[in-house]
Amino acid sequence: MDQERIAHAVREILEAVGEDPNREGLRETPTRVAKMYAEVFSSLGKQPETVANYKVFHVTEQPEMVLVQAIPFYSMCEHHLLPFFGTVNLAYVPQAGRVIGLSKIPRLVDFVTHKPGMQERVTTDLVAELTRLLDPAGVAVTIAARHLCMEMRGVNKAGQFTYTNRFTGVFKDDLALRQEFLQQTGGSNGQLR
Predict the structure, then answer these.
(1) Is residue 77 within 8 Å of 112, Cβ to Cβ?
(2) Which of 8, 45, 73, 148 is buried deepest, with most CB atoms within 10 A?
(3) CA end-to-end span of the chain, whole Å?
(4) What's the mean pLDDT in 6-17?
(5) pLDDT tens digits for range 143-183
């Protein structure tokens, strides 16, 4: 990531909105923003395996469902470069005894959300990546998020949540399993405060 170029662009933006990038409170802002962008967009140009070692384990007695719930995430809306944030519930049903370490699921969420995006794409990308890694019998993902592009501008409605979900395989076909997932996660998603 070209942090020097980002810092220069931030200085240009500050001048364009009528600010003085040389005043005391803003002198270091371009550099801070460049460092922040390096962090929040850290997944750009990377493959999931470079972020975490997604080692697949084999178990003889496989669980019916593996669920990690209320995983916090932060991302940036690709339309306005404003944050959206919330929680992810993600479950899968192992197939052929293949599972991954539980800590890898929040890391997968971080990988998918650390680039400009849309909540809808985050939902489907999580399903696609977990399917690619494990070839499970099914994947379930629900996301609840607040979008600052709706709260700070436009409709200016604070505290609104957007919910997205995706169910594949047995979660799509087995309504009882899907209901168990939704019941475990508090409906469509864990509540944010």
Answers:
(1) no
(2) 73
(3) 34
(4) 98
(5) 999 999 999 998 898 999 999 999 999 999 999 999 999 99
Higher per-residue pLDDT: 57 or 11: 11
What secondary structure does DSSP assign to the chain, as a single string?
--HHHHHHHHHHHHHHTT--TTSTTTTTHHHHHHHHHHHHTTTTT--HHHHS---EEE-SS--S-EEEEEEEEEEEETTT--EEEEEEEEEEE-STTEEE-TTHHHHHHHHHHSSEE-HHHHHHHHHHHHHHHH--SEEEEEEEEEEHHHHTSTT--TT--EEEEEE-THHHH-HHHHHHHHHHTTTTSPPP-
Measure the CA–CA gap between 188 and 89, rounded to whole angstroms: 9
| pTM score | 0.90
190 pLDDT higher than 50: no
Return the CA Rg of the chain: 19
d(CA 63, CA 120): 28
In order of their start, the domains of the chain are: 3-40 (1.10.286.10), 49-184 (3.30.1130.10)
Residue 91 Cα distances to 95, 136, 184, angstroms = 13, 10, 10
